[in-house]
Amino acid sequence: MPRANLQNQNRTKGIALILLSTLSFGFMQIFVAMTNQSISVMEQTFFRNLIGLVVVGAINIRSRISLFGQRRYQPQLMARSGAGFCAIVLLFYAARNASQADVTILNRMGMFTISAVSAIFLGEKLTKIHIPAMVIAFAGAFIAANPSFDSSFLPLLAAFGTALCDTVAYPMLSYFSGRVNPLTVVMHFCTFSTILSIPLMLPTFVIPAGWDLFCLLMIGVFAAVGQITMTFAYRMTPAGELSVYNQMAILFNAVLAYIFLREIPSVRTVVGGTMVIIASLALFFFKQHTLRQAEQGESEA
Fold first, then answer.
1. Structure confidence by residue, pLDDT tens digits, 167-186
2. Which of 89, 105, 223, 249 lies in disulfide reach of 145, CB 3.0 to 4.6 Å?
3. Phi-psi group of 210: left, alpha or beta (phi > 0 → left; psi -120 to 50 → alpha; rest → beta)
4. CB of 174 closer than 8 Å to CB of 234
5. Burial level of 146, CB count in 10 A (0-12/13-18/19+)?
């Protein structure tokens, strides 16, 4: 099979996986919002990662996949797990204490920093349409979110901190491609986050029951699906490119909020979501055209 054709297939799979991941994380956020306020952020974080630890651990043991990776990759794995854990805690805190629109727009700043880091440290090339697509997607996210920035300073700072943590965590997933099994990366992250969240949640721990227990379990289930699919996606497709498709979260979250929380999307949400879709489709078809040309060149050679 021509190399360009193989790259195209991997790209398509990676995009499909990142969209599934984005949708899964959208469901996770719905259950975060539906959980009683008596359940602390750290308890939500604990359940979010505990389910993933159990599921991925069982898969790894059954498939004889390394649970925590080789010793030489531990510094990178610790950096990825630490950044991911901080991103979760900051996102949950911001989402519970600030306007969702404000949190969304600040969190989407990570699209630019992820692309920059991926280009500088991983050698990923930004195409001539990549930057315009990012700008259009960001503008669409800004319009859809309609941020007022009248929330308290600390939650807004936490939302921006999430974007900075993602700048470390997401490109690391591309770095691990061909070095560390994706399920090992997920297992390392879930174990690290579960253990670290235990002492932090104990002072405010509440025994969940009924609806709250169901919500916490669903947070863990959808987080596990989102984490696994995201990790495989970054193995197949450049991190800088996937950061654009991640903006589909604006559309997915608006639809899910309407269905489950009865939040009616505004005209701004529809307009902004449309811009995000246009930017994502433009990047997708441009990449398809580029890879098709490369495949034809290989065939002629």
1. 888 888 888 988 999 999 99
2. 105
3. left
4. yes
5. middle
Q: Residue 51 phi/psi, 5° resolution?
A: -60, -45
Residue 131: Cβ within 10 Å count:
12
pLDDT at 121 over 70: no
Contact 111, 168 (CB under 8 A): no
**Residue with more model confidence, 163 or 60:** 60
Nearest one of 46, 35, 92, 38 to 212, comparing CA atoms: 35
Dump pLDDT digits (tens) for 57-102: 999 999 999 999 999 999 999 999 999 999 988 888 887 777 666 6
| Residue-wise pLDDT tens digits, 243-284 | 777 777 777 877 887 888 777 767 776 777 677 778 777 777
> Phi and psi at residue 67, in whole multiples of 5°?
-75, -45
What is the DSSP annotation of 33-63? HHS-TTS-HHHHHHHHHHHHHHHHHHHHHHH
Rounded to whole angstroms, the Cα distance separating 184 from 232 reads 11
> Is there a contact between 44 and 91 (Cβ–Cβ < 8 Å)?
no
Q: Where are the alpha helices (H) located in the chain, listed in sequence order?
A: 3-34, 41-63, 74-97, 100-107, 110-121, 130-145, 153-175, 182-201, 211-236, 239-245, 249-261, 267-300
d(CA 190, CA 171): 18
